[in-house]
Amino acid sequence: DNMQRVTAVLLEAGARTLETKLTARQIAERLGVSRKTIFGWVELDRVLGVPIVSTKKQGGGFFLPDVETEEGREAVKSCCRSLAKSAEMMQKTANLLLETLTEEGVE
Prior knowledge:
The protein has helices at residues 2-13, 24-31, 35-47, 70-103, and strands at 53-55, 61-63. By secondary structure, it is mostly helical. The protein has a two-stranded antiparallel ribbon. Helix 1 packs across helix 3 (35-47) and helix 2 crosses helix 3 (35-47). The longest helix is centred in the C-terminal third of the chain and has 34 residues, at 70-103. The protein is elongated, with a radius of gyration of 17 Å. The model has no long low-confidence stretch (mean pLDDT 81).
């Protein structure tokens, strides 16, 4: 899957901290795609629950948090909270659509 390629590159490169991060340009060059594609894939990865950290510090870039550190654990927790909220909103939307369609006689 294309989105998982970003995660694979970050893992392979050891991008686990601010100091070892990779820029969108570096990732794009490794995968042979545009920077815009990388930003899209990163966003989709995040929606799926991959805790990719982005930063504008030191020239910007992306990394996967090291769960051996407090900072890394906090980043993963934050990602999980966001994923839970997204899942809750998706469930509510799906239920509302089903209810509306059922009321309209569409099954």
